[in-house]
Amino acid sequence: MASPTRFPRHGSAGIAVAAILLCACVAAAQPAAAPGAKAPPPAPRIASPGDVIATRQLLFHLSAATFGEMKAVADGSEDVKPLAFGARGLVRWSRSIPAMFPPGSLGPNSRAKPEIWSNRADFEAKAAAYQAAATALFDVARAGDKPGFLAQWEATSKTCTACHDLYRSDPPRPATRG
């Protein structure tokens, strides 16, 4: 189990690796200029629905990993103050969730349900509830309140579940061999 003093570096390293990989992918997609030639300014690139889906899936995965590791660390340590770093990341992520579901970003690789767009006000309310819960989690972590952190971790988990229950489909089941 990770020690609480190592978690923030571990969490930020995972995010840093993801950011570096994302930048490398974007750089690799840009055409190279001939040696000595002045490259024209790059044309604006609009993310495809597949790019949006892949990005939000990556960010949800990192969020879930951070959230789960925070609980494991809190269960094994008396000091929850170092967990404020991860909680702050969850707050920042929660602010961007609605923007990660623009119209037209439903595709075959997405687990998002169409109700995200047909019931947008409720979806955004659930994202706001997650943001409020993550903010409270950050506050109790920063205060070093372990019982408060554990209780707020559960409350934050419920806001995730409330949204997933309505707006995320189950993953496809693997085909069975008969």
Structural summary, described in words:
The protein has helices at residues 7-28, 49-76, 84-96, 115-118, 120-143, 146-167. It has a domain at 48-167: Four Helix Bundle (Hemerythrin (Met), subunit A), CATH 1.20.120. It contains six helices and no strands. Helix content is 63%, strand content 0%. 22% of the residues are buried. The termini are far apart. With 178 residues, the protein is mostly helical.
Overall pLDDT score = 82
**N to C succession of SSEs:** HHHHHH
Separation, N- and C-terminal Cα atoms: 40 Å
Number of helical regions: 6
Q: Superfamily at the CATH H level of the domain at 48-167?
A: Cytochrome c/b562
Under CATH at level 1, the class of the domain at 48-167 stands as Mainly Alpha
Task: Please summarize what this structure is.
The protein has 178 residues and is an all-alpha fold. The N terminus is likely disordered.
Set out the fold topology.
Blueprint: H1 7-28, H2 49-76, H3 84-96, H4 115-118, H5 120-143, H6 146-167
Helix pairs in contact: 1-2, 2-3, 2-6, 3-5, 5-6
